[in-house]
Design brief:
globular, three-stranded mixed β-sheet, Collagenase (Catalytic Domain), 3 strands
């Protein structure tokens, strides 16, 4: 599912050529440590993205995605959908970050979330 979500995201962005994305699946304790080290937030999170490029100069190596399987499972149950759907959502979200998208301001958030939903629908995974 994770690989499929990366491919669907790249296809939706008309990505040409090769792309490398490193994906690591961890537990809540491991992602908590990463979240504290890189974002200064001492709590677990569902997913972290580490782009290797600045958005203007995106190369073949896009970056790293770290997913907490523990958190994904909890959120899937909370939202009442499958773990596959949650993993697809987290992966699409993070891959868009690697491609330079962000959601710090309302306009960017709307664009990014609209893209996420479009990609998930294209995968046959609607909300």
């Amino acid at each position: 599912m994770i690989k499929r979500a990366v491919k669907a995201t790249l296809k939706s962005e008309d990505w040409q050529g090769r792309a490398e994305v490193s994906i690591t699946v961890v537990d809540d304790e491991q992602i908590k440590e990463l979240n504290a080290a890189h974002r200064g937030i001492d709590s677990p999170t569902d997913v972290l993205s580490f782009p290797l490029n600045d958005g203007d100069d995106i190369g073949e190596e896009l970056g790293d995605i770290v997913i907490s399987m523990e958190r994904a499972d909890i959120q899937a149950k909370e939202y009442g959908h499958s773990l596959d759907r949650e993993l697809a959502f987290l992966t699409v979200h993070s891959t868009l970050h690697l491609l330079g998208y962000d959601h710090m301001i309302e306009e960017e958030e709307k664009e990014m979330f609209d893209r996420q939903e479009k990609i998930l629908i294209s995968m046959g995974i609607p909300r």
